[in-house]
Hints:
The protein is α/β, with parallel strands linked by helices. Helices cover 31% and strands 18% of the residues. It has ten helices and twelve strands. Helix 6 links the parallel strand 5 and strand 6. Helix 1 (36-48) packs parallel to helix 2. The longest helix is centred in the first third of the chain and has 13 residues, at 36-48. The chain is globular and about 55 Å long. 48% of the residues are buried. The protein binds S-adenosylmethionine (SAM). S-adenosylmethionine binds next to strand 3 and strand 5.
Amino acid sequence: MNAVDYLRISVTDRCNLTCFYCNPGRFLPRKELLSFEEIGDLARAAVDAGIRRVRLTGGEPTMRRDLPRLVELLSSIEGIGDLSLTTNGIRFSAMAEDLRAHGLSRVNISLDTLSPEKFARITGVDMHHRVIGAIDAALAAGLDPVKVNVVAIKGYNDDEVVPLALYASRRGAHLRFIEMMPFQCNRALQKGLFLSAAEILARLEERFVLEECTTNGPGPARYYRMDGGGGTIGLISPFSRPFCTSCNRLRLTSTGILRNCLFADSGVDLRAALRGGASRAECADLIRSSIRAKGKGHRLVHGEPSCAIYSPSQIGG
Ligand code: SAM
């Protein structure tokens, strides 16, 4: 088991897109969300429990007003050596410089297709150009690395595996294909749309000579370098190559529930602890016990959600 040093913090469950494989449908009242100060308190306790890297996610994190202030607060916490963001890019361009200036190190931007028309079908909005602009803005702001997250969807982007690889490589961005995971919100669709990492790899190998990177890092992706290309291609495959034994992460939901697995049914209520007066040391102990309770494998079964979670945006995908 790897040391658990990575915390993904969902700063809101809200999103400005309605991707059909993720759409939560309804949002929590704002008062349910952790305040920035509460997020800061829990991040300090998490550092005491061994966390060294933090990613802000959601929902869509840029929906949270004054996100640069949260970035500043977290980046000033001693012990957090790496602060990153996952965003859909719709609102990102205008804040890229500001986020960088306040301490953001790097960013992952989600883009499933190079086609504006398909983008609108997947996300429900006609704003493909905003995401393309966000990737350019992230690169121009000096965020490094810039990763492009692609959820692999049969019938939508299986014909775009090579074009997406070329697009990312030409810009010096890194591409990551993610196998679609089953949640309650997509269970009816998931089986027919599932595109495996092996199929993606086969398509890439038809066009490129790929070299597997020897240092794959502690995360879930296997990385490859393509001949003549700048960036890397990562394949995240919770089914064909589960990464539970090397999972180094915890998730904090926007309502302060600490989850030690994306597919766990429950977690530790840190908001209740904090609002009930728990000290930093007591919160750190709760986080340590969640780390100790991490399972050796999730119960992910192809096509079947193995937990009650409706959408990843509820827990911070
Ligand atoms: N709103 C941000 C975004 O779009 O990047 C952050 C939250 S989103 C839940 C985080 C990542 O999870 C995105 O790259 C998204 O495409 C991915 N995702 C959402 N639903 C998924 C699913 N069912 N299977 C695999 N990845 C999924």
